[in-house]
Amino acid sequence: MIDQQRSTAELDGKIALVTGATKGIGRAIADRLTQAGAVVISTARTKPEDMSVSQHFIAADLTKPDESTQVVNEVNQRFGGLDILVNNMGANTLPAGGFSALTDAHWQEALQVNLLAAVRLDRAFLPRMLSQKSGVIIHISSTSGLFPIWESTMAYSTAKAALNAYSKTLSNEVAPSGVRVMTVSPGLNKTEAMAAFIEQLAERTGVSTEMMTQNLFARLGGVPLGRMAEPEETAELVCFLASPRASYITGANYIVDGGNLPVV
Known about the structure:
CATH class: Alpha Beta
Domain Ketoreductase: 14-187
Shape: globular
Radius of gyration: 18 Å
CATH architecture: 3-Layer(aba) Sandwich
Number of domains: 1
Structural class: alpha/beta
Strand order of the largest sheet: 3-2-1-4-5-6-7
Largest sheet: 7 strands, parallel
Distance between the termini: 36 Å
Strand content: 5-15%
Family: Belongs to the short-chain dehydrogenases/reductases (SDR) family.
Pfam families: adh_short_C2 (PF13561)
Protein name: SDR family oxidoreductase
Keywords: Oxidoreductase
């Protein structure tokens, strides 16, 4: 009972920003941090009607530097900065088909969504974290950054691999000042974005979504647990990493994939 109470309120008084927080993993993370007692600020392009009233929402397209600046200014003016930053925003919405299907604009889009939006927010919020000698930054990456599939994730995988390298180097720089930086790389999660991705592939190849799901599992080498993750399962790890229970953890990339990744 004592451990449960500690876990429920362990982020009391902490200010957290979660990007891409209105759907899927981002929403699950925002809800879990709220449950743990944090004051959660959520940001995405549009606000859903059923969003928790306890979370402060800022509408923004973080691929645009000026809108990122607006988010930073509002957070600093209203909350005085952050204790926890979860860079969850990311997307794999570009054309499938390998190198010949991708233009310069597609590559720029992949980098803006999956890498540079996080870099900008980190750069803006880190000074205060460094001055107070505490803070947590978590980058939500993907196993695609370690297991690219040329047919469908070339630009996305490349951007996520860059995010992984950036996250590690940033952690080495700021750890001596008390700021922890980590990466979480989910595998297949049962989200709206994943459903849309599978539907797109199914339509392109002329098979059912059920068959495409099985084909995707096979292309990845199988998932030993035999299912996709629920977003709440990934959010549970993120909440732990953001908490004092993970005080000696930094610089690591945590794989949440049901045992899929075929390397150690």
